[in-house]
Specification:
By secondary structure, this protein is of the alpha/beta class. The protein is built from twelve helices and 15 strands.
Length: 365
């Protein structure tokens, strides 16, 4: 039976013992797989971020994900598989879409691509939040693959953090949010990509990218027959939460506790925006301003900043992506009230994913 959690419990009060398992130990991987088969919650590394896994075919286990994360029921989950051979257990792909799905799977699985596919009756409304499509991914991380193979189950796994907070890229990040709320975390060190998967709905024409990630639209198009087109989801198009068709498109998401302030990608604009922060606050709040900054490598330091995180070169999106969530968490832990962050220029590809996460993190609640 899945463990039930007290939704009203303090985020800091332990409700149970969370095991810190290590991916380098085969017995720990086997133990994590056994926990998943028993309906328990296990956080594990993928190449994108750490996911919070539960048996996707067990409604009690799935419900425990929402309770542990304090995640609203209207936000659907992504199901992770060990191989495409398992697709038939959770999806029913129409013949007309089979070649399109096959081309995408051959090109990008295993990897950081989530496809929204027609679900089978085995997948409950709790996983899809009542939608007819289920998000499916086959992760490339060797530890995730080993765990999925050992469990022998489709595993529902959103990011392993409290809902709306910055996604975790290390086991320590997971424990900072969920220690005492989940059964175990399988520690495999830092994730490599650092941002969540690209989410694509291939059932529509044109196909829709709901969340940009490491796999860009131009990459997707190269893998498909000519004549197929892709459009990006417009966040303002759907305001009703119950109508949101995909994971990861909440208006405020991936957010630090501090107020995130975005600037243009120049040192001059960063300095100007930083200078504007104190005068913009009410007089009674000005003395409590503590500024942090995600500072690109080589940029001059802000004299007003009490904490600076070396984000990496602004012309290296792989480093920026991998260090983004660590930077936001590090500055939060330093007790800053405001975080200044330059938005990279619109160069497409992974830059789009970085800008997407920054903008969602900076939106008001």
């Amino acid at each position: 039976m899945a463990i039930r959690y007290d939704e009203e419990a303090s985020e800091t009060r332990p409700l149970m013992k969370t095991l810190h398992l290590h991916a380098s130990k085969p017995d720990d991987v086997a133990h994590a797989a056994n926990l998943l088969r028993d309906g328990r919650l296990v956080a594990f590394a993928t190449e994108t971020v750490y996911g919070l896994g539960a048996n996707a075919l067990n409604q009690d286990a799935v419900a425990s994900i929402f309770t542990a994360k304090q995640r609203p029921a209207w936000d659907p989950l992504i199901v992770h598989l060990a191989s495409p051979d398992q697709l038939s257990t959770i999806t029913e792909i129409p013949a007309l879409l089979a070649s399109r799905i096959s081309a995408l799977a051959s090109a990008f699985w295993p990897g950081p691509l989530t496809l929204l596919l027609p679900r089978s009756p085995a997948i409950s409304d709790a996983v899809t939040a009542g939608r007819e499509l289920v998000g499916v991914r086959i992760p490339a991380h060797p530890v995730a693959h080993a765990l999925l193979q050992a469990a022998g189950l489709p595993i529902a796994a959103p990011s392993a953090n409290l809902f709306g907070r910055t996604s975790p890229t290390t086991a320590e990040h997971v424990l900072a949010d969920l220690n005492g709320r989940i059964d175990a975390v399988l520690d495999a060190g830092p994730t490599s990509i650092g941002l969540e998967s690209t989410v694509l709905d291939p059932t529509q024409t044109p196909m829709v990218v709901y969340r940009p990630g490491a796999i860009a639209s131009r990459d997707l198009l190269r893998a498909l027959p000519r004549g197929i087109s892709i459009k990006s989801y417009a966040p303002g198009a759907v305001t009703n939460r119950a109508a949101r068709p995909s994971p990861g498109i909440g208006m405020r998401h991936y957010a630090p506790r501090a107020t995130l302030v975005l600037t243009d990608p120049t040192p001059e604009n960063l300095m100007d925006r930083a200078a504007d922060q104190k005068p913009a606050l009410p007089p009674e709040e000005q003395s409590s301003l503590r500024m942090g900054v995600l500072l690109p490598t080589g940029w001059p330091a802000l004299a007003a900043a009490v904490s600076i995180f070396d984000w990496g070169p602004l012309d290296n999106p792989e480093i920026l992506a991998a260090r983004l969530y660590t930077g936001l968490r590090t500055l939060d832990d330093a007790g800053v009230t405001h975080i200044m962050a330059p938005q990279p220029s619109e160069h497409g590809g992974l830059y789009d994913a970085i800008r997407d996460r920054l903008r969602k993190a900076a939106r008001p609640a």
